[in-house]
């Protein structure tokens, strides 16, 4: 009900609903504007209300618009269907000095020398105000911003791109009324948003669907989001969810490996070029000459679950990585900062967005309940995995490759294979990709657990009573 009382108010004049900022704009801009430099340095934010008050070129544009109002009305009416602008139309909307609303007043007269308009508001008030206190109709404002800010390129939503739509009408105004070329345009599809597995529709500020840059940066690097936008054609709808961050980061990390030639491409050349270029253009600076140290997002998710909140996350992480891989890490300051950010993002994601099955704890020993659930038919595959693990460097990609090389006859056997691994290490029948989680465990622990599993399965095959196994 309180919000309704501010209907037709300029947002800059609507109070902050939380009471912590001067107005609505400052409150909701904070989680957006304060984080833009993370995505691209040198962004200059322009507030339209400041253009109206302080920009002389904007004032000249408004005066020109009023002088050429007949020509403007003629152009706009070509695109308005049945509802035409009336003959007495003035292309300016003042803010009522009594009720504070905009779009509720009729301009009665214009004094260009004083830069003022006389108006009558639907609230009954009649007065005279400076044209700094109001705005152009939105189509004209769009054209004004192009000229005043010298815009050369501007993407816009697909709703503006329909033939004979708003973009066409603004192009017409720029070319045929104000005599300048409109910016090069690029239409784009809207971005969908999924929360809790439910498609919430397209992101939008008016109905608060989506996430802010602040929320994204809590769980992933800015380059990842830029990469996702660059990778997809502008008119292809993409759907984003903070719950799917590991998937997005994996795609970005793979692009990085392809860029450095660490991973060999098995995709068409054109697709590879698109991936690599999207990676390069997502960077704020030129990528380092040598490939930086990389751990997967899920590896980080697994790792942070072994590090208490009170510990120095980067020191402990490096210590644990070195312990499990049995080799020393020599990281640059850039790589340390990058690793710390990945770990911090992973912890935030785990706390705020991760499905339950990503939260794991390692079984200290095989309980009777777990042993009862083990199927002896899987023994040959566990033996093969044990043999594969013995000879590898203890790193996520090597672990993954060793598991892939275990020969499964069919989908049923594959499901049973992974079910067994989840059971003997984490006490559950399913979970996230297991390689990142195994990589944080000591290799000897994993081999010993597999040996124990093999022994138990052999005893079950030989008909030993379960109580005698313990």
Give a written overview of the molecule.
This protein has 470 residues and is mostly helical. Among the domains are: 99-134; 191-281, no CATH class; 297-358; 368-469, Arc Repressor Mutant, subunit A. It has 21 helices and ten strands. The strands form four sheets. A three-stranded antiparallel sheet has the order 2-3-4, with no helix packed on it. A hairpin with a 2-residue loop joins strand 8 and strand 9 (198-202). Helix 4 (56-67) packs across helix 6, helix 6 crosses helix 7 and helix 10 (245-260) crosses helix 11. The longest helix is centred in the C-terminal third of the chain and has 20 residues, at 333-352. The radius of gyration is 31 Å and the shape is elongated. 23% of the residues are buried.
Determine the structural class based on helices, strands and strand pairing. mainly alpha
- Which architecture of the domain at 368-469 would the CATH scheme give at its second level? Orthogonal Bundle
- Give the overall form: elongated
Rg of Cα set? 31 Å
| Helicity, as a percent range | 40-55%
Number of helices in the DSSP assignment: 21
User: What oligomerization state is this entry in?
Assistant: single chain
Strand content: 5-15%
Biggest sheet, in brief? 3 strands, antiparallel
Mean pLDDT: 93
Strand order of the largest sheet: 2-3-4
Low-confidence stretches: none
The strand count comes to 10
CATH topology-level fold name of the domain at 368-469 = Arc Repressor Mutant, subunit A
CATH class assignment of the domain at 368-469: Mainly Alpha
Distance between the termini: 67 Å
